[in-house]
């Protein structure tokens, strides 16, 4: 009986951690994928326009960054985007741990000259 109770408590803690932490990492992965796309296909946009697009994506993906947190540079047809933020992740009930999310993306150049 006690053994099953301990298993149930451990299971509840694992489920709690997954529910609290999973969405943070999901938003991070979606945001990083979207920023990679922006950096890979910058077109004729200026770094300020690309920064505005990254900030718009951050709002869509619930990422808490501001304009001063985003660095965008252009080099020919490629763009480089860097940003980071710290989230308080709740692994255990009422126990928060800081975790640094880092997005450092280099746009992939077109292959085969856009073929």
Q: How many domains? A: 1
Number of helices: 2
How many runs of DSSP E, i.e. beta strands? 3
Q: What are the segments in which pLDDT stays under 50 over at least 5 consecutive residues?
A: none
Radius of gyration: 19 Å
- N- to C-terminal distance: 66 Å
Oligomer: single chain
User: Mean pLDDT, as a whole number?
Assistant: 89
* Portion in beta strands: 25-35%
**H and E string:** HHEEE
Main beta sheet: strand number and arrangement?
Answer: 3 strands, antiparallel
How much helical structure, as a percent, in the residues?
40-55%
| Strand order in the largest sheet | 1-2-3
Quick one: overall form? elongated
Structural class: alpha+beta
Quick structural overview:
By secondary structure, the protein is an alpha+beta fold.
Word description of this protein:
The protein is an alpha+beta fold and 115 residues long. It has one domain. 46% of the residues lie in helices and 28% in strands. It has two helices and three strands. The chain has helices at 2-40, 47-60; strands at 71-75, 78-92, 95-106. A three-stranded antiparallel beta sheet has the order 1-2-3, covered by helices on one side. Strand 2 and strand 3 form a beta hairpin. Helix 1 (2-40) runs antiparallel to helix 2. The longest helix is centred in the first third of the chain and has 39 residues, at 2-40. The chain is elongated. The protein starts with a helix and ends in a 9-residue tail after the last strand. The mean pLDDT is 89.
